[in-house]
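To assess whether the prediction recovers the assembly geometry, we first specified each molecular entity separately, as shown.
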Amino acid sequence: HVQLVQSGAEVKKPGSSVKVSCEASGDSFSSQTFSWVRQAPGHGLECMGRIIPILSITEYAQKFQGRVTFTADTSTKTAYIELRNLRSDDTAVYFCARVIGVGGSSVFDVWGQGTLVTVSS
Amino acid sequence: DIQMTQSPSSLSASVGDRVTITCRSSQTISTYLNWYQHKPGHAPKLLIFAVSSLQSGVPSRFSGSGSGTDFTLTIGNLQPEDFATYYCQQSSNTLYTFGQGTKVEIK
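The predicted structure of the complete assembly is given in tokenized form:
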């Protein structure tokens, strides 16, 4: 049974960077797909993209292109998201989620607990 | 990008009510449509995948229907634990966009 455990809350200054981790338990980390989703205060869920560690594939939502990087360390079964040039509207809870295929559809079946990133001067 | 539009954005209902939430995609997504429930302070929870298939452990009062661009989530006999925000999500492409959410509140 896979569990995803994320790193703790962060407070950052505008213009700085943040890196959030997502450690997976269980097997087959590198062959799985992980997505990052964020929820800003008063807003809905926003998918930022995905990473497939075994294929070194990353895909980013256009909104975040150039400012975000997904990486993964297969030896520690940990996925990372780094967001640069932070702005106040990047204040949000960031979730990692595992993506699997079920019944012909891709779903986010296991989620991390979320990491609050606060951007404030 | 595929845009997902839900309606209503919020609704008030009572325990025992039947609730219907709609989701429309900006282009045809076949049956690549999922529904999630999200409560404050928790991670979202998968309810329904591929339009109408219930995730294991999800009560049968939840059901989904639709195809193409128009989809529906129905909660029959609303229970106290069902008050939450519900999101549709497309998986037709790998950007996996969500609808803006529908908050179900207690009347």
